[in-house]
Structure formats: structure tokens, C-alpha cells
């Protein structure tokens, strides 16, 4: 038997006063309990606590909401970009427990308990992170849409130690597409940042 | 994406129990399932998240080989010393698959369950495809099929299985270990994927509620290699790939196992060639004749004739690479 979602408009959810969210959740659980008591383990709405850039966020989501959409639409952290939404372009790259992942391929629910780092979490106040500065100094972008994903991927690429040569950098940065084709400058920026961070 | 209800499994036993629910899907790395749900390839009413299941991600020595937990991430498998040193063919195949980000999510147990990349299968709507809509026909048979099969296809399906790791696993004679409330199975990787002559609608032999829990590798194969031919150097599916594992007596092959990828709906072992390779030096001219023995059964489509020569040459080169490993 299919568990149906409660009738809650997206707008009211987005406005999301705590009371409204709690009420809709209670309704969801009631529906699921009536329809499939033997499968109460399955939830149609999920209460989540996500830790992003060291800050805890509480939210209630449908299971289908991805980490990418939760970041952008629920936490207003729009530095992480939605390019293809299929795991093909890398624009949505974030760090999860320090490892780079495509946030469009992770359900928000699966990210609970993980430490998420986004582009907004890199700078120290007004001082950019050395990897951010290296991208600016190497002119490693044109339109800039892929850049936050490139920088998050570069953070991990450097941490992993995959910066021994330009060829190695290109191979390990290949999951981030740049339609402006700033690849030579991106490679140079990653190499420079790797050297600075030692 | 159609919404679904969600449950987290806290253990393997709980995952199997939840997996008995109607219309449920297991979520491991998510790199395939989430896209299937977006495109409409699959729209399960329930999703069981395996992220909290513990004890299924180890890479460990077992008697006579290595066991890899199904939830081990691809990057962790490829860079584990037991794999990198004992089974370079598998390490190389993984590191040439997808991207660094995707390999941090995708699991070794989920990877073989990947579905075909045929554009008609992946289309948002409309095209006849026996894998999307059984009985609807095969649009690729007389359509765009230049990346499709040269072995083992039927008029009902001409797609190839796209994944790299299973090609290496087939050359290694690896075994997929499953669990199910009614009993698990040991499934040789070579028999895991379903040829269209068996059933054009199916991808693999898994039953509803059956969970891959591990992959077992037999004895190490240090003399092994993987060669991936593709249209760009990185982050692309293979047009043809080849895996070889050799046992040598001095400079002569004692035993060869060779598999081709992206040429059929399953990794394609060159059985006839393997028998003829014993006793040859890896770079002997007779190697080409031995490989040709397996190409007697090649049957290209009008658009895949170019892949026959590519596959034959890839097989020859991967044997030399494995001998140098």
C-alpha cells in the first residue's frame, strides 16, 4: 500500500513556521499509520538536523529532497550551484565528512549526522581561503558558474594529494566541467594552492 | 521525481526486513537510483537507506583471496593496498570509472546494478525500449547504436553494460555474495548480468528484496591490467574496455583470463582465446590469432563494425600490459 504525502502546499512549507511544520509532520505520520501500520518505519516526511559549515540546521523535508536543494532552497546557501542535477557536471560539489561528493546525488536525509562544508564555509571572515585566492589570481574562471564546485573539488584534490603533476590534477579534477573551458588556469590554480598549502 | 517514503536501516538484518515491503528499493551510494527516479526509469514507493548499516564496508583478506563489503566506496576499494597491489586490474578499472566525487559516493556492491546507458533507455519518454517497457521493441536496433553490442545481442535489445569494475571482476572470476530473507546466494560476476537471449527486460539476476552484501575475489592476480578506450581521456564511459589477468611461467603465459567491456550486456570473457593463449609469450604474433578465435562469434550491428577491430586490438594490448604489471 502506498503511503501518501499530506496535502501541504509548497509555499506554506517554505514559509515554514515551526508550528506549521510540526503540524504537517504529525499529519503525515497519521496518514502513514492509517495506511500501513506494519510499515511505520517508512516516513513520508523527515525531521532532519544537518550540520553545514559548523552550524546546525533543523528542517522537515520530503524524502526526495536532495542535499543540494536543501542547501539552496531551505538554508539559502546558494553558493553551491545546480548545473545538470544528474551528477554529470560537478557544479554542486560539497565536502561531506571532508570528502567531495555531488550534492545532487545525496538525499538530504542521508546527510544527517555528516559534516557538510560548502563554499560559504571556506573564507575566514573577509579573508578568502588560499584555494579561493589561487583561483582569483590564476584567472581560473570566466562566467563563474562552475567555480564554487571547482574550488570545493580542488580543496579535496589537494587534501587527497592528487596534485603531483598537471596531468594528475586534470585527471582528479575531471568531475568538474567548465563550459568556458578555463581548464589550463584551473589546473594552474590548483597547483599553486597545493604548493602554498604544502 | 515522484515522492517516496523513506526508512533508514540500522543493520543488515533490518535492511532485509524492510526490503520485504512492496515496491521498495535499496539506496546505497545513490549515484544511479536517484537519477533513475528523476528520469522515471524507476519510481519506487519506498526507499531503504543503507547509509547507517555498519560492517559492510571492509576490505579484508579471507582464505584464498579478499572479501570486499558491498558498501565500500569505489575510491576506498581502488586505493586499498590489498586491491592496489594484489588486484591491479580492479584498482585501475575503478579509477578510470566516473569522477572522484562520484567514486566517493558509489559503492562496489551498487556498481554492478548500474543500468545501460542506451539513449533510448535513458530518454525521458517515448522511445520503444524493452528494458523500459517490456514488449515495446528496441529503438536502437535500427536507430542510433554506434556504442552498442558486438556480442550476444538479439533484436529485442542491443545495449551493452557500461560499468568498468564488473569487467575486471569477471576476469578475476569474482563472486557476488547476496542475502535475502529466504537465503542468500553466491553469484559469479560472469553470470550476474542477463543477456537479452535470456530476458531482454532484465539487467541482472537479483530478486526483489535481495541485497548484495559483498564481493569475493579469489587468489591475488598481481599480473593484471585494465585498458579503457574512450572518446575523451577522463570521466567518460568506455567505447571498449579490456581486462586481463595472467599467470606466467617465466616469459610464457601459463593461464590467461581476458574479458571485454562495453561489447555486450555482460562482461565478455574470451574463452576460446584464453585456451589458445597458454604457452605463448605475451607479445608473440600468435596472440593475435588466439584472440581471433573468440571473435568468430562477433556479430556487429551496422553501426558497431568499428568496435570489432578496436576490441580485438584492446584485448591484445591489455595482455601485454598485464605481463608488464
Tell me the fraction of residues in β-strands of chain B, as a range: 15-25%
Q: What's the SSE pattern of chain A?
A: HHEEHEEEHHHH
Coarse shape of chain A: elongated
Rounded to the nearest angstrom, the radius of gyration of chain B is: 19 Å
Largest protein-protein interface: A-B, 43 and 35 residues
The count of helical stretches of chain A stands at 7
Report strand % of chain A: 5-15%
**Mean of the pLDDT scores of chain B?**
97
Poorly predicted runs of chain B: none
The fourth-level CATH homologous superfamily of the domain at 130-197 in chain A is [2Fe-2S]-binding domain
Under CATH at level 1, the class of the domain at 130-197 in chain A stands as Mainly Alpha
CATH class of the domain at 225-324 in chain B: Alpha Beta
CATH architecture of the domain at 225-324 in chain B: 2-Layer Sandwich
Largest sheet of chain A: 5 strands, mixed
Helices and strands of chain B, in order, run as EHEHEEEHHHHHHEEEEEEEHHH
Helix content of chain A: 25-40%
Number of strands of chain A: 5
How would you sum up the global shape of chain B? globular
Give the class of chain B from helix and strand content and strand pairing. alpha+beta
Mind sketching the topology for me?
The complex is a heterodimer of chains A (198) and B (325).
Chain A: H1 10-15, H2 18-35, E1 46-52, E2 55-61, H3 67-74, E3 93-96, E4 99-102, E5 115-117, H4 130-137, H5 147-160, H6 166-172, H7 183-197
Parallel strand pairs in A: 1-5
Antiparallel strand pairs in A: 1-2, 3-4, 3-5
Chain B: E1 5-8, H1 12-18, E2 24-27, H2 33-39, E3 46-49, E4 59-62, E5 65-69, H3 74-78, H4 81-86, H5 88-95, H6 100-105, H7 119-122, H8 165-171, E6 175-179, E7 186-188, E8 211-217, E9 224-229, E10 240-249, E11 252-261, E12 268-269, H9 271-277, H10 286-295, H11 305-324
Parallel strand pairs in B: 1-3, 2-3
Antiparallel strand pairs in B: 4-5, 5-8, 6-7, 6-8, 9-10, 10-11, 11-12
Amino acid at each position: 500500500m502506498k503511503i501518501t504525502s499530506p496535502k501541504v502546499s509548497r509555499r506554506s512549507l517554505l514559509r515554514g513556521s515551526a508550528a506549521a511544520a510540526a503540524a504537517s509532520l504529525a499529519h503525515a505520520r497519521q496518514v502513514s499509520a492509517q495506511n500501513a501500520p506494519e510499515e511505520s518505519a517508512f516516513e513520508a516526511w523527515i525531521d532532519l538536523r544537518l550540520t553545514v559549515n559548523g552550524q546546525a540546521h533543523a528542517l522537515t523535508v520530503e524524502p526526495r529532497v536532495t542535499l543540494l536543494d536543501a542547501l539552496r532552497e531551505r538554508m539559502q546557501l546558494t553558493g553551491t550551484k545546480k548545473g545538470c542535477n544528474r551528477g554529470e557536471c560537478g557544479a554542486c560539489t560539497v565536502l561531506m565528512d571532508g570528502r567531495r561528493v555531488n550534492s545532487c546525488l545525496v538525499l538530504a536525509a542521508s546527510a544527517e549526522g555528516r559534516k557538510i562544508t560548502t563554499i560559504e564555509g571556506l573564507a575566514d571572515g573577509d579573508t578568502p581561503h588560499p584555494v579561493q585566492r589561487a583561483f582569483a589570481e590564476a584567472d581560473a574562471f570566466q562566467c563563474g558558474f562552475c567555480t564554487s564546485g571547482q574550488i570545493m573539488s580542488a580543496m579535496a584534490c589537494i587534501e587527497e594529494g592528487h596534485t603531483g603533476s598537471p596531468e594528475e590534477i586534470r585527471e582528479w579534477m575531471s568531475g568538474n566541467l567548465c563550459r568556458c573551458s578555463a581548464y589550463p588556469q584551473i589546473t594552474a590554480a590548483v597547483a599553486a594552492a597545493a604548493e602554498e598549502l604544502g | 521525481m515522484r515522492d517516496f517514503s523513506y526508512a533508514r536501516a540500522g543493520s543488515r538484518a533490518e535492511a532485509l526486513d524492510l526490503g520485504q515491503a512492496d515496491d521498495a528499493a535499496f539506496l546505497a551510494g545513490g549515484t544511479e537510483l536517484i537519477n533513475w527516479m528523476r528520469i522515471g526509469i524507476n519510481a519506487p514507493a519506498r526507499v531503504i537507506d543503507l547509509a547507517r548499516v555498519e560492517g559492510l564496508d571492509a576490505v579484508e583478506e579471507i582464505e584464498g583471496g579478499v572479501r570486499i563489503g558491498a558498501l565500500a566506496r569505489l575510491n576506498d576499494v581502488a586505493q586499498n593496498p590489498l586491491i592496489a597491489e594484489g588486484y591491479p586490474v580492479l584498482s585501475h578499472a575503478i579509477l578510470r570509472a566516473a569522477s572522484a566525487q562520484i567514486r566517493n559516493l558509489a559503492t562496489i556492491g551498487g556498481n554492478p546494478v548500474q543500468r545501460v546507458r542506451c539513449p533510448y533507455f535513458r530518454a525521458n519518454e517515448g522511445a520503444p525500449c524493452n528494458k523500459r517497457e517490456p514488449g515495446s521493441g528496441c529503438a536502437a536496433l535500427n536507430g542510433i547504436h554506434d556504442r552498442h553490442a558486438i556480442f550476444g545481442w538479439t533484436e529485442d535489445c542491443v545495449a551493452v553494460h557500461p560499468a568498468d569494475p564488473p569487467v575486471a571482476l569477471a576476469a578475476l572470476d569474482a563472486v557476488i555474495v547476496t542475502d535475502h530473507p529466504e537465503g542468500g546466494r553466491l553469484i559469479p560476476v560472469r553470470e550476474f548480468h542477463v543477456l537479452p537471449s535470456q530476458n531482454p527486460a532484465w539487467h541482472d539476476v537479483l530478486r526483489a528484496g535481495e541485497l548484495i552484501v559483498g564481493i569475493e575475489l579469489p587468489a591475488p592476480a598481481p599480473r593484471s591490467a585494465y585498458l579503457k578506450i574512450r572518446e575523451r581521456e577522463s570521466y567518460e564511459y568506455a567505447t571498449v574496455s579490456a581486462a586481463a589477468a595472467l599467470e606466467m611461467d617465466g616469459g610464457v603465459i601459463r593461464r590467461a583470463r581476458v574479458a571485454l567491456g562495453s561489447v555486450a550486456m555482460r562482461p565478455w570473457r574470451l574463452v576460446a582465446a584464453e585456451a589458445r593463449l597458454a604457452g605463448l609469450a605475451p607479445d608473440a604474433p600468435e596472440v593475435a590469432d588466439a584472440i581471433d578465435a573468440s571473435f568468430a562469434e562477433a556479430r556487429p550491428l551496422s553501426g558497431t563494425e568499428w568496435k570489432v577491430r578496436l576490441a580485438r586490438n584492446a584485448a591484445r594490448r591489455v595482455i601485454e600490459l598485464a605481463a608488464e604489471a
